[in-house]
Amino acid sequence: MKKRSFWFLLLFVVATIFWAPVSTLAQDCAGYYLLKNNTEYELINYDKKDKLTGRVLYKVTSVNSSPGKTEATIHSKILDEKGKLTTEGDYTVSCQDGSMLIDMRSMVNPDMLAAYQNMEVKMEGDQMDYPSTLTTGQKLKDGTISIDVLDKQSGQPLTSMVMTITGRTVGNTESINVPAGAYNAFKINQDLELQTKAMGMKMPATRMQTIEYFVPGVGLVRTETYRNGKLLAYSVLNRISN
């Protein structure tokens, strides 16, 4: 259960949280792809041997603006390696003061909770953000989400998981090619840790590292996931249209 839960958490972190484009103007949200109605984009996932493991399709279905803030609803579809739909759902992103803000609770992959459908699940999470400008050496805010699973009748805690994202550091820009095009991207490093408790027993923490290639005005165009310096999986931006 621990390994399965980690990979679903990793999926929502890699495939959802970091697709938050940034604007070139600190107070202007108009250039954000995720805040343009009907924008569509696709992420393709591969394992370390370049084998296709799945796709994620996104579409902006509505955009609402108010003074100082813009919020969009995005519908996502997760497909397996054969193109079969495994799950779909909605989440929101917002722009405030030129930064994208994403509630981590709103983006947990529903598949992760399938095993707990007859139980009570409580989630609390931070907002992950990307500032309006990125510079080499910049430290970005950490993020944490906790998930508690309880017995519906007794309220007794059964399982708890805490995913922590730390060490988010902006590196140099690099030229990178993906199916969606050629980009000059910021290289961002971060650490992931999953701590699990089952029936009160603390399990060994699972730790991984990710590298993201982030393009201002576009978003994440490639991610790489490592454990102990060895590549486990990667994702690339296949297309984007609006």
Automatic annotation (TrEMBL):
A Pfam cross-reference name: DUF3108_like
InterPro entries, per the entry: DUF3108-like
Domain DUF3108: from-to ranges: 39-237
Keyword Cell inner membrane: no
Keywords in alphabetical order: Signal
Signal peptide stretch: 1-26
Protein name, as recorded: DUF3108 domain-containing protein
Organism annotation: Pontibacter fetidus
